[in-house]
Design a protein that fits this description.
alpha+beta, four-stranded antiparallel β-sheet
Length: 402
Amino acid sequence: MHVTRLRALLISAVFIMPLAAGGAPAAPVTLHALVEQAWLRSPSLRGTAARQGEVDAARALSGSWVAGQPVLGLSQRSDRWSGQSGVRESEVSMSAPFWTPRQRNARRDLAEHSATELQAQVRKVRLDIAGEVRARLWDVATAQALREEKEDHLHHIEELADEVRRRVAAGELARVDALLADQEVQAARIAVEQTRAEANARLSKLRILAGPLGALPLEPEPLAAADTENPRLQAARATQIRAEAALRLAQASRSAPPTLALSLRQEPDPLSGPERSVSLSLQVPIGSAGRNRPVEAQAQTQIAVAAAEAQQTEEITQAELDSARVQLEHARAALSASGARVSSMREHEQLIEKAFRLGERGLADLLRSRALAHEAQVARRQQEVALGRAHAQFNQASGVLP
């Protein structure tokens, strides 16, 4: 069966949700909208909002030259308790530490890379949520496809049972044949109720994740290649780059920031009156390599861990992509084979039904033939859904965000 046939089938049958009482058919939604709903309901959204505030604050501060709170000083000197000559000096000062150009650039780089890392982490989380939505979406598709097949099988069995009852009443078949047909109808009804319960349970899980649902969407066709790099790889590499920026900041901060002070002094002069002077002072701390050694060691550890995780993520991502590609090829081949099997079993069923109407075959043979034909149809429908699931898994492994 061609992919276009699959898509039309899934749109028209598999994904159509039960209608609300007295309501109209639900409007279809896109996969992007469904993932967006799940993202808005995710606890990760609030954590991301909080982290975004941290990143914004760090970026705003990274452009400032001031390294700490300014200090306002006031001092007075008097000989009141010693010479009693009325000498009094006053001084007002303002001092503040400031970043060196190297320290400021390192802080700015760290803030920018932290913002980039957060954006990459958000895309990774959204991809993870998309994977969960895709998995539950296709669980619903599988359950609803099976339910529809069981309902279709029940419809045919009930028609057959009605025909058997007519022929029993006409004396063409024995009473035992009617009982056998009734047993098949009851078994089909039980199977329908079981599949309906399973479909509703899987639908509830999807609603818990994504909220209110309309007619569920299809997965886009697998892309030859993702438009951008896989978000999981982006996040891992962004973490490594941010750790390297943290190391550069630690190396630039081996010395504390210098302090610049401005003071205004007023001194008494018996001849010319008070004299005022302005002074500017600079204090430069003398740092050492050992001052920030623990911080630098911690940053180097983070770099090593991030590099190892990035390498592992790359290997896992590539393995998952290769596996998804193989699964997609197998699903296509299996769907083609199941279609051929359905055609063969349908012809077999038609021949047995013709023989049954002519009295050449018994009811048990006809029921067995219909059971095999139904089994083939179920297998084909399952393969159709399996192909759709394989599409979704390939897109997910490729890092395609809906």
